[in-house]
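ligand=nicotinamide-adenine-dinucleotide
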Amino acid sequence: MVSKGPLLRLLTAINRRRMKLLMGLAFIAYVASVWGNFVNMRSLQENGEQKVESKIEEAVAPLREKIKDLEKSFTQKYPPVKFLSEKDRKRILITGGAGFVGSHLTDKLMMDGHEVTVVDNFFTGRKRNVEHWIGHENFELINHDVVEPLYIEVDQIYHLASPASPPNYMYNPIKTLKTNTIGTLNMLGLAKRVGARLLLASTSEVYGDPEVHPQNEDYWGHVNPIGPRACYDEGKRVAETMCYAYMKQEGVEVRVARIFNTFGPRMHMNDGRVVSNFILQALQGEPLTVYGPGTQTRAFQYVSDLVNGLVALMNSNVSSPVNLGNPEEHTILEFAQLIKKLVGSGSEIQFLSEAQDDPQKRKPDIRKAKLLLGWEPVVPLEEGLNKAIHYFRKELEYQANNQYIPKPKPARMKKGRTRHN
Ligand SMILES: NC(=O)c1ccc[n+]([C@@H]2O[C@H](COP(=O)([O-])OP(=O)(O)OC[C@H]3O[C@@H](n4cnc5c(N)ncnc54)[C@H](O)[C@@H]3O)[C@@H](O)[C@H]2O)c1
């Protein structure tokens, strides 16, 4: 008889091995299934990620295009600017740079590739005049009154800050005096500190009601020191005196431009001078008002001619005063008729009684500018007038659309006399 012990042992041993094998297989199957799940999940995840990514891409693609367009419009927003090397690029301060002349000067200097800082208290200037430069890396706009000192680093200063048209400078004669005296002292002090050259925007009004015709730079003028215009005329005369005192005593490099009547786009709507008055009257179908018989003469230069003259003078070695104006003389009546024709207006010309103190003649002698700066006006009167008419037409449309247009307040003077300025 075979004992059951060894058989049982054998069977048990076989079962144990099978069990081990089975367990091993089960473990492998488990690992394989876990791995399979893992791989499945990964691929699901990858698929999912790909789907999400493609969805994001779909949503972002048009945004990307928009950003590109925006970037393009952003870089194209500014008028074209020349590239100037570090050596040729100047840091230029323009006081009154948001005004009529100052904003055109800003355009010229920016387009020439310089770094321009405009300082303005917006008394008669407007942000709108220079808004096309805001954000440009070469441009800065500072809201500042030149009656307060200013500390910045610059190479050249065009000092234009001062109201220029009679209703504006007569509105607050004391402020006009402070701007032209304290303001000019502050700018000369700055020029001295940083070694900058300063150009003063002086005026033909320093000749007053002239006794010589045409007026050359050697004429000392005929100014009433206590009349209603004295705040401006005498303010500019003493500003010139200050320039030469700083030049002689402190060695500051100065340039003095005696500017004659200038016109063009960005003039104030209520500038009060004959060109803007006639254009606005003609555009609105109102009578063109001529004071006296209209035989008084005036000479007007277009603003781009003036700007070229200012830049030429600044960069010249001429430190004595220079007249900048257009010597082409016309009677007031001729201006009225020409503007009426160019506007295509049916307005009548209305003759009113002659204004007191109205100069009969005003015409610059520009031989010095021609000889020393090689400068003379080149824009024909009709071409300039057409540009100004286009501008005023647009401004009237702008007003008609109920948009806000800041207007300087009317003169405070009780007995203001209307004149052909
Ligand atoms: N336009 C002309 O026909 C003419 C003629 C002769 C002289 N000028 C001179 O040219 C310069 C510019 O004249 P415009 O016709 O452009 O006049 P504008 O009134 O348009 O410009 C003068 C600018 O100076 C600013 N300003 C005034 N007071 C200031 C102050 N205290 N601080 C800072 N900014 C101040 C005004 O806000 C304005 O932007 C003036 O100095 C003016 O006397 C002009």
